[in-house]
Amino acid sequence: RIKHSRKVSFKTVRTVFIVLLSLAIFAGIAFLVLRSSSIFAITNIQVEPTEHVTNEQIQKLIAVEEGTTLLNMDESLITEELQKDPWVASATYERQFPNTLRITIVERKVTAIVALSSGPVAWYLGENNVWLEADQLTVPEGKTTATVALEKATSEGKLLVTDVPATVSPVAGTTATDAEIQAVMQYQSTFSSELTSQIVSYSASSVDAISVTLTNGVQVALGSPTQITDKEKVILAMLKQFPGELTYLNVRTPASPTYRRVSTGNVQSGSGVS
User: Which position among 2, 81, 200, 205 has the lowest Cβ density within 10 Å, counted as fewest Cβ atoms?
Assistant: First the structure.
């Protein structure tokens, strides 16, 4: 009886296995047939426009060849085409059978607005130091490009970078390789949120002359992007020590900072924070 039971059990398992294998093979064949079938051919593409990318621009970039279906579409190829617009950081896809493809664009975040020295133009600088787009500024009589750029950055809640060398010549979609821009972004990415939340703008005439202006009006000379953590400790300590009194702070050498206060107008040596 035990042997007979084992034989029956084995036959049952084998039968179930064969059935499941057959179903899997059938499903695989059916998928291969359907993935190229015109039944699921993409005939309708829906795209949600973003702040800086219009529906028309997206439609022009999308690479979906005739006959492409919801099952054989190449997401990576479509994303690659979309990212030819520097504002496009990534894209997600939703298949709505039988024929609709819905695309959602994620815009690249703006990390700073850079006012050029060559004229009344400000550039949006995005994540990973990618140049996004130029904005021609209207500079009224009596104002400077830097002033107008600051008003623009303030209204949009963005960080401003000014005084960049004339050699900085952005091209949309390329990475900013200028040493001055990289130095600014190194500071910005290393500083804590406690300090970056107080930074209004950077001045970047050269790598060795990087400085910032804080929300309280204090100008801080940073110098080249070295000992960044130590420099931040000094800045925060001095702001706490002289609340509302500082007008200028030099932390190029964090062990020996100098500063100027409203009450004295004199440059004095500060105590370094290690």
Answer: 2
